[in-house]
TrEMBL record:
<dbReference type="InterPro" id="IPR018086">
    <property type="entry name" value="NADH_UbQ_OxRdtase_su1_CS"/>
</dbReference>
<keyword id="KW-1133">Transmembrane helix</keyword>
<dbReference type="Pfam" id="PF00146">
    <property type="entry name" value="NADHdh"/>
</dbReference>
<feature type="transmembrane region" description="Helical">
    <location>
        <begin position="73"/>
        <end position="93"/>
    </location>
</feature>
<feature type="transmembrane region" description="Helical">
    <location>
        <begin position="302"/>
        <end position="321"/>
    </location>
</feature>
<feature type="transmembrane region" description="Helical">
    <location>
        <begin position="262"/>
        <end position="281"/>
    </location>
</feature>
<feature type="transmembrane region" description="Helical">
    <location>
        <begin position="148"/>
        <end position="166"/>
    </location>
</feature>
<feature type="transmembrane region" description="Helical">
    <location>
        <begin position="178"/>
        <end position="197"/>
    </location>
</feature>
<dbReference type="InterPro" id="IPR001694">
    <property type="entry name" value="NADH_UbQ_OxRdtase_su1/FPO"/>
</dbReference>
<feature type="transmembrane region" description="Helical">
    <location>
        <begin position="239"/>
        <end position="256"/>
    </location>
</feature>
<feature type="transmembrane region" description="Helical">
    <location>
        <begin position="105"/>
        <end position="127"/>
    </location>
</feature>
<keyword id="KW-0472">Membrane</keyword>
<dbReference type="GO" id="GO:0009060">
    <property type="term" value="P:aerobic respiration"/>
</dbReference>
<dbReference type="GO" id="GO:0008137">
    <property type="term" value="F:NADH dehydrogenase (ubiquinone) activity"/>
</dbReference>
<protein>
    <recommendedName>
        <fullName>NADH-ubiquinone oxidoreductase chain 1</fullName>
        <ecNumber>7.1.1.2</ecNumber>
    </recommendedName>
</protein>
<comment type="similarity">
    <text>Belongs to the complex I subunit 1 family.</text>
</comment>
<keyword id="KW-0496">Mitochondrion</keyword>
């Protein structure tokens, strides 16, 4: 049951996410400016600190335009659905030891079940406007998300087989001694690549190829509708970074200490990696994108399903979990994999 405390927690969580998105956009523009030998936002207030607020005011004061031959119900509802799904998933993210609105035993399954619904919001967003650019962009985004979700699912399957739990807090407790990043660095690398592609970020932002599709499935959205889509996109990106940190970098844990400040520092590190990727790599062709998943990542991922238990059993890293039943479980799994 949802009580008054849960409602207050949800409101505070939404405020926290909105402020984080404003900060992320400012950091992103500043780093992009630095990489291109320019200053970036530096006019509004102190060195451009209030630039995200100025951008939000500008967007919200624009006219809401409804294009011809548009499905008005879907045109208005799909941005709301996209943002709602993105925010809903954040309710089970453990920001520190004592704060998560819901602690589910099937936390990872819940996250990926809700995130799979994002495909429908993107597809309906492109279809509702009766525009070829928007629809092609939505089809590209949908195909890209579905294909890379396969690789992500196999990666999660490997980590769950090692951790032996779907609970996010259990995953954090297991990493008090050693982060999963260390024994599973190849898996972490593939997870980062798959997440960049699944969220349509550079160099995989083919859904918004300006020379081909203008702005992709976002085209013709203005005012509050575009603002909601923008917030949904960056909320999803922030969620992906949080999942990466929880699964591979110990979340808010460092040396048995759990605080939200540690979580924030790790989030910032992942932000820098994502933005650095955007500033340095060019956009791939669509055939290269599909080749990467079907001919490179997926076969390698299937091989690592067999190799990962072997690595954990024969290296000293496995001693970090000597007080758990993981090693016995892995021995059984290793036999089944080899069989």
């Amino acid at each position: 049951m949802i009580n008054a405390i849960n409602i207050i927690q949800i409101i505070l969580l939404i405020i926290f996410i909105m402020l984080r998105i404003a900060l992320i956009t400012l950091i992103e523009r500043k780093l992009l400016g630095t990489s291109q030998a320019r200053k970036g936002p530096n006019i509004v207030n102190l060195s451009g600190i209030l630039q995200p607020i100025a951008d939000a005011i500008k967007l919200l004061t624009k006219e809401i335009i409804l294009p011809n031959n548009t499905n008005p119900v879907l045109f208005i509802l799909t941005p709301i659905i996209a943002l709602t799904l993105a925010l809903f998933t954040w309710t089970i993210i453990p920001l520190n030891k004592n704060y998560s609105i819901r602690d589910l035993n099937i936390g990872i399954v819940f996250i990926f079940a809700i995130r799979s619904l994002r495909v429908y919001s993107v597809l309906l967003t492109g279809w509702s406007r009766n525009s070829k650019y928007a629809f092609i962009g939505a089809i590209r985004a949908t195909a890209q998300m579905i294909r890379y979700e396969i690789a992500i699912g196999l990666i999660i399957l490997t980590t769950i087989a090692i951790i032996n739990s779907f609970n996010l807090n259990k995953i954090l407790e297991l990493q008090e001694k050693i982060w999963l990043l260390i024994p599973l660095f190849p898996v972490f690398t593939m997870f980062m690549i798959s997440r960049l592609a699944e969220t349509n970020r550079t160099p995989f932002d083919l859904t918004e190829g300006e020379s081909e599709l203008v702005a992709g499935f976002n085209v013709e959205y203005t005012s509050i509708n575009f603002t909601l889509l923008f917030l949904a996109e960056y909320t999803n990106i922030s969620l992906i970074r949080a999942i990466i940190i929880i699964i591979f970098l110990g979340g808010s844990v460092i040396f048995t200490t759990r605080t939200s400040s540690i979580f924030a520092i790790k989030i910032r590190l992942i932000i820098y990696i994502f933005i650095w990727t955007r500033t340095t790599l060019p956009r791939m062709r669509y055939d290269q994108l599909m080749y990467l998943i079907w001919k490179r990542l997926l076969p390698l991922r299937l091989r690592l399903i067999v190799i990962t238990p072997v690595i954990l059993l024969i290296t000293p890293i496995s001693q970090g979990w000597k007080n758990t039943s993981i090693l016995n479980i892995e021995k059984c799994r290793l036999k089944s994999y080899l069989w």
